[in-house]
Amino acid sequence: MEVHAHTHTARKKWTHYFWEFLMLFLAVFCGFLAEYQLEHKIEKDREKQFMQTMAEDLSSDTAQLNRLISARKTRVWQLDTLFNMIASDEYLKEGRKVYELYELPYWDILRFFPSDRTMQQLKNGGNLRLIRKRNVSNALISYDVWIRNRKEYEPLQAELANQINNFHEKLIDPVIIAGATKEFAFNQLAADTVVKRFNRIVLPAGITISKLAEADKKAILKYLYQVKTIYMEYIRDNISEKELAEETLELVKGEYNIK
Fold first, then answer.
1. What is the C-alpha separation between 207 and 30, in angstroms, rounded?
2. What is the pLDDT of residue 86?
3. pLDDT category, 84, cuts 50, 70, 90?
4. pLDDT reading at 13 higher than 70
5. What is the C-alpha separation between 200 and 187, in angstroms, rounded?
6. Residue 179 in this model has a pLDDT that exceeds 50
7. What pLDDT is recorded for position 9?
C-alpha cells in the first residue's frame, strides 16, 4: 500500500489578509478620488466656458440696448416734431417734412432681443448647478427674470398702431409713399444683398396736405402722444436693463477673471 504524503500549507496570519484588504481598498479609493477629481475639473472647465459665453451674451445685450436707447430717443424727438407740426397747422406748409417723419414710422416696434443662448443652456440642460458662486447664479437669474418681464408695452403699442391706421389716409397719401419708395423697391429686388435704408425714400418737392378735420386732428395728436409716452417708458426700461447687464457683466468678469 502506498502512502501519499500531503504537503502542508502554512496558514496565513490575519495581518496578511488585513494588508491585502487595505491595499485593495486604497486602490479602489484612489481610483475613486482620481475619477472625482477628473469630473470636478471637467465641471470647472464647463463652468468657466459657460461664463465666457455669458460674458459675450451680456456684452451683446449692452451694445444692443445702447443702440435701442439712441434710436428711441431719436423717435421721441421725431414724434415731438410731428406732434407740434400738426398741432400748429404747420403741416399744411411743410408737407414734405411730414412725409419724411412718416417714413420713420412711429408705430414700428423696436424690440429688445436678449442674447440668451447661454442662459437657455444653463436652464434647459440643468447646468445652473455648475455655477458654484452663489452671487453669480443669483445675478444671472435676476437679470433673466428682469428682461423677460419688461415686455408689457409691446402689445399696447401694437394696438395703438392698429388704431392709428384708421387715420393715416387723412394725413398721408399712399400714392405718394408708393412713388417715393419705388426706386428703393426696384433696387432691392434687383440686389442679392440688403439695400441700405437711407436710400429707401425719394420724395417729390412741393408736397401738400389737405387740412384735417378737427376730430381727425385731435385723434392723430392723441395717438402720437400715447406712442411717445410708450417710447419714454421703453427708454426707462432699456436704461435699467443696460445698467443691470453691465453690473452682471462686471460681476462675471471679476469672479471668473475674464478679460
1. 86
2. 93
3. very high
4. no
5. 9
6. yes
7. 54
Is 140 part of any domain? yes
* Residue 98 maps to a domain: yes
Provide φ and ψ at 108, rounded to 5°. Answer: -70, 125
| Mean pLDDT for the chain overall | 81
Q: Does residue 1 carry a pLDDT above 50? A: no
| Number of domains, the chain | 1
Domain containing residue 158: 22-107+115-256
Cα gap 109→1, rounded to integer Å: 112
Give Cβ neighbours of residue 95 (< 8 Å, ≥ 6 apart): 206, 207, 208, 209
| More confident position, 158 or 60 | 60
- What is the rounded distance in angstroms from the CA atom of residue 109 to the CA atom of residue 111? 6
| pTM summary value | 0.76
Kindly state the cell numbers that stand for 133.
458662486
Residue 17 lies in a domain: no
Predicted confidence band at 169 (pLDDT cuts at 50, 70, 90)? confident
Instruction: Give residue-wise pLDDT tens across range 117-146.
Output: 988 888 887 777 888 888 998 999 999 988
Q: In whole angstroms, what is the distance from residue 168 CA to residue 189 CA? A: 27
Domain presence at residue 6: no
